[in-house]
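Let us practice reading a record.
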Amino acid sequence: MGKRVLIAMSGGIDSSVAAMLLMEQGYELVGVTFRTFDSITESCLAREKGCCSVDAIFEAKHLAEKLGFEHHILDVRDLFKRTVIQDFIDQYMQCRTPNPCVLCNPIIKWGRVLEMADELGCDYIATGHYARIAEKAGRFFLQKGVDNQKDQTYFLWKLTSEMLSRTLFPLGGLTKQEVRQIAADHGFVKLSQKKESEEICFVTDDDYRHFLQDEVPDLQERMPVGDFVTTDGKVVGKHQGLYNYTVGQRKGLGIALGEPAYVVALQPDMNRVVLGKREDLQHTRCVVSDLNLTKSPDFEEGIQVTCRSRYRSAGTPARLSHLDNGRVEVVFEEPVFAVTPGQSAVFYEGDDLVGGGIIES
């Protein structure tokens, strides 16, 4: 009998095809799907779709039964609420723009799942992420998936070498089109045509503002109406609360200045939203904290990397320098648009992920 693997199943095509491939490779599979929502996220339950929804749980369970392996539902509602959701709220209340998947991965999808793997006697865990794993001198680190359009290493930079040493990514060497074809070839035609959702799983219709309004009863009191100002400090209108705005935003500002205006900065101490031109959002540096390095335990001062400060970014050549308190300065070789506090900065050498951190400023 092959190695025993606990595979995280969302009910979608990627984790389903990952399961099919692992079975063909001789692994003994056990499936698990997360239950993350309760009454605080009724809006998510109402839409009944997407990762971790009620429909997804039953779809994953049905697929496991059809393929012939056991399936478990892992109730992480309390942990998910206390960590991922609470951090999401806290970050927005600090006028930062978080990426909840970055936190969910090490806490839920690896942290809790690895614990369950031990409980069930599984050697590895597996997911349907488009990423690869390499090993050098006993350290395990991420490499980009071969499909540049689907590569998901940007969201996985918090994973440790130890976590990766027990992880399988069956889709890392495949393109999305190849994955769809595999599903169809296995007789899952409907699954092969299933659309993907890139929304935050607990935020209905990708509207985080309504989510915050539901979850923070005194939101308007804590983030009241304030001033729109230009980069030179001139008051040009009223904003509707800082939580409604993120750095780089152009649409939905509710103000007309006769030319395109962008959110350049949020100033919570003065309750102001600073507006400017696109060129005001060109950054040549940023400071990163909460660093996690996997390829090596440290980096040489001035090391050249490619830095991605947004998921869809192709990356920009940059150099890294150590600062105090474990922070890192990133100096870009060419200006980068709308580097946003709270988002991730992820560093690469070719396809190898060197590490990442949270953009501080």
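A brief commentary: The domain at 4-128+170-206 is CATH 3.40.50.620 (Rossmann fold).
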